[in-house]
């Protein structure tokens, strides 16, 4: 599978693959992910590999973009993920990020999200980028605003009860 990869000053971004299951398992089960994004009921490395192949890779194959492993150049460590998601219930592509706790607060989410936002606009022809986050995830709200997304309204996604914040960036308005 040959897909575009991206690079920043400190990071490589390449599609998340089944071989990343151990890190994806850790991310999906961090207290912050479970609190702010939800419990994906993934408890083993095998379930994480299955989650990658059934929930992440189909969109990549269909649309050419998806969830990216964020890898630190200096030592090859997988820090987290950053992705462009075509999500049910949203009219547009959502930018999202999730990092292991020990790599938070070091600018990696911002650096990778800036590069993916650029890729969305330049490489994938996406004109609007959305961001969704929980009402209490202030770090995510701050990051979406730093990326140039503006709060639009409260929404509820299909199969979910919780109201969440919807942010939007439109290339036409820039």
UniProtKB/TrEMBL annotation:
<feature type="domain" description="N-acetyltransferase">
    <location>
        <begin position="11"/>
        <end position="172"/>
    </location>
</feature>
<dbReference type="InterPro" id="IPR016181">
    <property type="entry name" value="Acyl_CoA_acyltransferase"/>
</dbReference>
<dbReference type="GO" id="GO:0016746">
    <property type="term" value="F:acyltransferase activity"/>
</dbReference>
<dbReference type="InterPro" id="IPR051531">
    <property type="entry name" value="N-acetyltransferase"/>
</dbReference>
<protein>
    <submittedName>
        <fullName>GNAT family N-acetyltransferase</fullName>
        <ecNumber>2.3.-.-</ecNumber>
    </submittedName>
</protein>
<dbReference type="InterPro" id="IPR000182">
    <property type="entry name" value="GNAT_dom"/>
</dbReference>
<keyword id="KW-0012">Acyltransferase</keyword>
<dbReference type="Pfam" id="PF13302">
    <property type="entry name" value="Acetyltransf_3"/>
</dbReference>
<keyword id="KW-0808">Transferase</keyword>
């Amino acid at each position: 599978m040959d897909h575009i990869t991206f690079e920043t000053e400190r990071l490589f971004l390449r599609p998340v693959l089944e071989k990343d299951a151990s890190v994806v398992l850790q991310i999906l089960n961090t207290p912050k992910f479970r609190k702010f994004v939800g419990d994906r009921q993934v408890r083993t490395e095998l379930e994480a590999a299955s989650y990658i192949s059934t929930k992440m890779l189909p969109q990549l194959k269909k649309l050419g973009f998806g969830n990216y492993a964020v890898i630190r150049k200096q030592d090859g460590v997988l820090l987290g993920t950053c992705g462009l998601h075509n999500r049910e219930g949203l009219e547009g592509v959502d930018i999202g990020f999730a990092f292991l706790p020990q790599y938070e607060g070091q600018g990696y989410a911002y650096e990778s999200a800036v590069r993916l936002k650029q890729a969305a606009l330049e490489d994938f022809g996406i004109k609007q980028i959305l961001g969704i986050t929980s009402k209490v995830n202030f770090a995510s709200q701050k990051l979406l605003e730093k990326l140039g997304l503006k709060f639009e309204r409260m929404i509820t996604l299909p199969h979910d009860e919780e109201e969440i914040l919807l942010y939007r960036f439109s290339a036409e308005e820039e």
